[in-house]
């Protein structure tokens, strides 16, 4: 695997101090667990056998680890993120309070992924990517058993690349993708790679639109189970 990282010139996650502090609180379990993290565990818990590996792709501070750990799900957790600050945060905060060694947090891009995991979760990541296809292809090729995605999915493709008022004051000229992808197309893309796919209602939003940065998002969870 090549360890490319995101350039801070265009990477919003390298330029948002408030977000880093929120992620730090999540790592310290000082803020409420994300509903979607709890839901991911609920979906996966009966699909996991002891010792299975799980990659959290675009893991941020790696706080989904706690959702598996506190429910005693016997997986070997790995996190991958292309933002050095996120991987440093995960290593500082999660590794110090758990038995996870720092190597479990990998600095690199999904697009370069060339190792396999039994399960992959990728939540709230591809919506903010230029397009879903290349990173999703890498994720599918790296999944042995089951993949879970949570992204904004609707009837048609909408690409939005807009400035973000939440970024650090001197970085608000930067633009961020907030895309919605056509759900039927994404499902058929996953099927092409040998997955049986089902769509599950996102419990946080209950099929209602959620405004993020004043942009409508329709969060859906797709579960893909490999059959070939
Ligand atoms: C919106 S945050 C979501 C973090 C976490 N998954 C969650 O749900 O709270 C997106 C994360 O994905 C990372 N990311 C985005 N695109 C990526 C890529 N192509 N490869 C690796 N990491 C990526 C960012 O650095 C950021 O930490």
What do these coordinates show?
The protein has one domain: Vaccinia Virus protein VP39 (Rossmann fold, 3-Layer(aba) Sandwich), CATH 3.40.50.150. It is globular and about 45 Å long. Strands 1, 2, 3, 4, 5, 8, 9 and 12 form an 8-stranded mixed beta sheet that branches. It has a two-stranded antiparallel ribbon with strand order 6-7. It has a two-stranded antiparallel ribbon with strand order 10-11. It has 6 helices and 12 strands. Helix content is 26%, strand content 27%. The protein is α/β, with parallel strands linked by helices. The model has no long low-confidence stretch (mean pLDDT 96). The two termini are 24 Å apart.
Note the main attributes of this structure:
228 residues, alpha/beta, Rossmann fold, 6 helices, 26% helix
- In percent, how much strand structure appears in the residues? 25-35%
Summarize the main sheet. Answer: 8 strands, mixed
* Class per helix and strand makeup: alpha/beta
State the CATH superfamily name. Answer: Vaccinia Virus protein VP39
Bound molecules: S-adenosylmethionine
- Compute the gyration radius: what is it? 17 Å
Question: Helical residue percent?
Answer: 25-40%
CATH class: Alpha Beta
- Based on Cα principal axes, name the global outline: globular
Q: Return the string of H and E elements.
A: HHEHEHEEHEEEEHEEEE
Figure out the total of helices: 6
Mean pLDDT: 96
Tell how many strands the DSSP assignment holds. Answer: 12
| N-to-C CA distance | 24 Å
Count of separate structural domains: 1
CATH fold-type name: Rossmann fold
CATH architecture: 3-Layer(aba) Sandwich
Low-confidence stretches: none
């Amino acid at each position: 695997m090549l360890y490319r990282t995101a350039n801070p010139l265009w990477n919003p996650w390298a330029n948002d101090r408030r977000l880093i502090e929120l992620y730090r609180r999540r790592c310290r379990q000082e803020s409420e667990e994300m509903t979607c993290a709890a839901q991911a565990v609920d979906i996966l818990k009966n699909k996991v056998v002891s010792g299975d590996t799980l990659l959290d792709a675009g893991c941020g501070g790696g706080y989904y680890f706690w959702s598996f750990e506190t429910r005693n799900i016997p997986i070997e957790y790995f996190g991958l993120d292309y933002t050095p600050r996120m991987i440093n945060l995960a290593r500082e905060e999660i590794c110090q309070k758990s038995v996870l060694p720092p190597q479990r947090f990998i600095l690199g891009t999904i697009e370069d992924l060339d190792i396999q995991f039994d399960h992959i979760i990728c939540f709230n990541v591809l919506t903010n990517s230029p397009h879903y296809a290349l990173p999703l292809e890498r994720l599918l090729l790296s999944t042995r058993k089951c993949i879970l995605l949570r992204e904004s999915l609707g009837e048609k493709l909408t690409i939005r690349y807009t400035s973000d008022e939440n970024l650090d004051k001197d970085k608000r000229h930067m633009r961020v993708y907030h895309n919605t992808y056509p759900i039927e197309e994404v499902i058929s893309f996953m099927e092409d790679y040998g997955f049986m796919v089902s769509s599950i209602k996102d419990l946080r939003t209950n099929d209602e639109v959620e405004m993020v940065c004043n942009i409508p998002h329709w969060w859906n969870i797709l579960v893909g189970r490999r059959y070939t």
